[in-house]
Amino acid sequence: MQRPITDLKVDTAKKESRENIKKARRDRMDPEKSSTTTLDLLKKSLEKEKSSESDDEEIEIKTMLSGYESNDQKVTLE
What is the mean pLDDT of residues 33-55? Predict the structure, then answer.
């Protein structure tokens, strides 16, 4: 009696999952591999985002001020 195809797919998926878990454990314990954690990557991306936002704000302020510098309007008080 043959096993249904779905049972074979489940078995191969389980085997691949076990192999991936084993590989991930080995990689975590390997000192030569990068030890950068997800938290470290998240912190780096947040720092980059903050620095790009501050650069955008500086550019906007400079363009707004440049319009006032070249304006030669005179104001008279009564």
Answer: 81
